[in-house]
Automatic annotation (TrEMBL):
PANTHER family reported for this sequence: DIPHOSPHOMEVALONATE DECARBOXYLASE (PTHR10977:SF3)
Domain of life (superkingdom): Bacteria
Domain named Diphosphomevalonate decarboxylase-like N-terminal: residues: 13-168
Keywords (A to Z) from UniProt: ATP-binding, Lipid biosynthesis, Lipid metabolism, Lyase, Nucleotide-binding
Domain Mvd1 C-terminal: 196-322
Name of the molecule in the record: Diphosphomevalonate decarboxylase
Pfam families assigned to the protein according to its UniProt record, in alphabetical order: MDD_C (PF18376), MVD-like_N (PF22700)
Natural source organism: Chryseobacterium herbae
Amino acid sequence: FTIHTQIVSDSCPSNIALIKYWGKYENQIPANPSISYTLNHCKTNTSMEFLADEPFSVQTFLAGNEEVKFAEKIEKYFKNIEEYLPWILKGKYIIRTENTFPHSSGIASSASGFGAIAKCLMKLDGIFSNELSEEESLRKASFLARLGSGSACRSLYNGLVVWGTSDEVEGSSDLFAVQYPDAEIHDIFKNFNDWVLLIHEGQKSVSSTVGHGLMNTNPYAERRFQEARENFVPMKEILKNGDMERFIKLVEHEALTLHAMMMMSDPAFILMKTGTMEVINKVWDFRREAGLPLFFTLDAGANVHLLFPNNGSEDQIKTFIETELLQHTQKNGVVKDVMTF
Ligand code: PMV
């Protein structure tokens, strides 16, 4: 039977890594395992119209505006995943996508974007062919999202999510992400704030694709990959026993190591801005003086993700952020997200 036109839609959140993925091999195989929190509010909503009678082509609209560059990227991606979805090149796609977080905010939209596209593709696959269970379908969506943008594969699952083979996490794989076992997570980590300070709008000077590539010639790369693997040992203990002090130390170390790797690349590059450094120093001062669990992580960009537990005693932290840290952002920009599961 033939289905001429199908429209499917889905949405997918962004995620923020605690142990970072930076460096990869052929076919989007990560050089080390990573673990992230999936956000609740920062999402991409995508609708995908598939016109089966047309020759293969892709048209994309971001927030209503046609984006030719993005369409080219998706076309290439679809060709790349044909071996896993044999029907994929047999029609025309009109893809409409919008983010719930501000455009050009620098919040990773590739993770939520590819996550949403992979979910839409699995919905079409469900219509055309597959007999996969819900669980298998989700795993395949994670597998497909990985081939679009590595970190996207983690966005398919809620809560804490691991991508990359780790001896510490049963069932973990380089090919898709898995949810970190709920029973192994202390309650303190199941309700956490992530307030993203928008330090700098506009394009990053170096894309993450180029950044990953520079790890191939970075003399510290192997040591870094080893360290990330090793960091799963304390992370596992911390997540189980709720040791906030060790958690903070580990998460900040991971963020700074990511950026240190960039500085030690050849050519070197720096994605932090003055505001990033100012905020980090103020967070450290605040923690020393107030003794409250406010800490940060960074993505491949200048924005600062401010992390703190959401357990009813965070008023002082919120006031501090609003009175002392917002001034370091562009246009008082902050996106307030939370991770609850
Ligand atoms: O998924 P990519 O290729 O955009 O890589 C992103 C990597 C970091 O965001 C810097 C770290 C991570 O693990 O998400």
